[in-house]
Design goal:
Layout: E1 14-17, E2 26-33, E3 38-41, E4 46-51, E5 65-70, E6 73-74, E7 78-84, E8 87-91, E9 93-103, E10 109-119
Antiparallel strand pairs: 1-2, 1-7, 2-3, 3-6, 4-5, 7-8, 9-10
Amino acid sequence: MTVARTLHVKKGDLVRVVAGRDKGAEGRIIAVIADDARVIVEGINRVKRHTRVVQQGGRGGTTGGIVTQEAPIDVSNVMLVVDIDGEKVTTRVGYRRDSVTKTRPDGSTYDAHRSVRIARRTGKEI
């Protein structure tokens, strides 16, 4: 059994593939599989799946055929894309802990920390 870990990308991030068959292509992350450290990127690593006809009676059946869909790729093969002065460039992801003041339901306040992702190339919050 593998332990789920925190990955440097999230669902919805724009990433560029840096290794493999689709090197250089960009797309948005559709899904993150943290247990296997893999991501599914829109339009990247498309494979053909052969599906069979399922007869469930009524309208619940599915048609068979060849379906093209995205397959997972390793998270180490993608880099986050950020916009710097109108140009899209890749960057590594860092983390910064910011001090914030939070309010309890009874109205009292306390100091806490919030972790935010930052682009290493620009230092700005993602």
